[in-house]
Design a protein that fits this description.
Elements: E1 9-13, E2 18-19, H1 21-32, E3 36-41, E4 46-51, E5 54-60, E6 63-64, E7 75-78, H2 83-88, H3 92-103, E8 108-111, H4 115-120, E9 128-129, H5 136-141, E10 145-146, E11 151-154, E12 157-160, H6 166-187
Parallel strand pairs: 1-3, 1-7, 2-4, 3-6, 7-8, 8-12, 9-10
Antiparallel strand pairs: 4-5, 11-12
Helix pairs in contact: 1-6
Length: about 190
């Protein structure tokens, strides 16, 4: 039976310059499993993707970051692209937003350069993670164990390397979000979604 994310709310945290396919394909997978996936951004109304080597499409921002409450979400998705996470990791509100998910034990999925924000949020220490290869020194310096694998789950954190890994990333993300979110809602005394 396929994993169900019915009644699960996922925050997709991005700024301008995210790798477009790393938002659109995971978002489709989440919604196909029943989740409500909402774009959260420091940009108040729309955010623009990056498509390989040029600007991509604009996307509507569902929740501006300054109005976003991590308590209103069950899990977090961090797409990559070089510009996007580099901008986010310089914004204290974005770092705190991501850190709140880690601190609450909520599942987080980051792909490509997305783990940069996890480094900034002190969320990779002692964890085995993967990413775009250029992040491996940053991850090791932050106390993480970097590996070259298509998708790695360590506790509540899923990481992946690049767009080619999206099928494996999506499969593990839906599974992780279903498994961990169900445990979190049961542990907090809230009945699990049917």
């Amino acid at each position: 039976m396929p994993e169900s994310l019915q009644n699960i709310r996922v925050a997709i945290l991005v700024d301008n310059g995210f790798e477009q396919v790393e938002l659109t394909e995971p978002k489709k997978a989440l919604e196909a499993a029943g989740a409500k996936a909402l774009i959260v951004s420091p940009q108040p109304q729309q955010v623009q993707g990056w498509h390989t080597k040029q600007w991509g499409d604009p996307f509507h921002v569902d929740v501006p970051l300054d109005m976003a409450d991590p308590d209103q979400f069950d899990s977090l998705l961090l797409p990559g692209g070089v510009m996007n996470p580099d901008k986010l990791r310089m914004q204290p509100d974005a770092v705190e937003f991501a850190r709140a998910f880690i601190n609450e034990g909520k599942p987080v999925a980051a792909i490509c350069h997305g783990p940069w924000l996890l480094v900034e949020a002190n969320a990779v220490k002692g964890k085995t993670v993967t990413s775009w290869p250029s992040l491996q020194t940053d991850i090791r310096n932050a106390g993480g164990h970097w590996v070259d694998q298509e998708a790695v789950v360590d506790g509540n954190v899923l990481t992946s390397r690049k767009p080619d890994d999206i099928p494996a990333f999506n499969q593990r993300m839906v599974s992780l979000f279903a498994q961990k979110t169900q445990k979190t809602t049961v542990a907090s005394g809230v009945s699990s979604p049917e």
